[in-house]
């Protein structure tokens, strides 16, 4: 039941604001037509009046990125102003800490061969993420405001509430990547677009039966209009050799990972004043497995923001890639999704 509610919330987040925007545009068109019918020169035809209203609406849409947009283009523009400053670290993904991250059922199965370890796990742990990127080009490569970056993201799940073991880091994930991002002149449904290409390695840095890792190349399309930004990120997994024996260090640690992660990810961010609502969804339609994450950031003090998150499905971490759970957390973020 929880999964159904979470999926419904993401659908609303991704599509609800866009539907409202379309209804608002229709109302504006009707109001414009009524106003001009009352005030326009009698020699004008209905077609000419309608054309004037459409031109005025188009001008408003084209002005959005420069006036009220808080999307990816605006973020790229702001980051480029300081990214080569020696004392500035440019954020990549969200940087945050969740002092209390709850699970309805912590994954103990993956650690079953470590005696005295998994049975002492707490369903509450601390989780944090550190993510930054380094620009590799000062001048444009192909398009204006494009960028080639090295990125790195560290995620950690820390058993700070476990009493009978020494509060270990249950899992850490490392994600180095190389990617290229650029705005485009393509306009879809009145919104601006950008595209992304990259290659990524993700690993938990463990050995033997706890080892998890994969490599993938990915692309991405970002769409933004006003305060709403959507993303579609498909990927292709780079194949690895099969393990020749159970403890083979060179074989594929998780050959079925796409059964649970799928082959793409959908994202949405909506900014309302100083508040941000976010959603992420991924799914493998062949196996009917996937995951959804809902997030909310809000201002606290200075650059610090509050961050609340809910997760449901498979792959909260690499060690959990084939384990489903529902999680909730609240904490502090150091940067918003959009600028």
Q: In words, what does this structure look like?
A:
By secondary structure, the chain is α+β, with helices and mostly antiparallel strands. It folds into two domains: 2-67; 72-333, Outer membrane phospholipase (ompla), Chain C, CATH 2.40.230. Helix content is 22%, strand content 42%. It has helices at 2-39, 46-67, 72-80, 257-261; strands spanning 90-91, 96-103, 124-135, 147-158, 169-188, 191-203, 213-225, 228-237, 264-272, 275-284, 289-301, 304-314, 324-333. It has a twelve-stranded antiparallel barrel with strand order 2-3-4-5-6-7-8-9-10-11-12-13. The longest helix has 38 residues, at 2-39. It starts with a helix and ends in a 6-residue tail after the last strand.
Largest sheet: 12 strands, antiparallel, barrel
The CATH architecture of the largest domain is: Beta Barrel
CATH topology of the largest domain: Outer membrane phospholipase (ompla), Chain C
Percent strand: 35-45%
CATH superfamily annotation of the largest domain: Phospholipase A1
Percent in helix: 10-25%
Low-confidence stretches are 1-22, 61-69
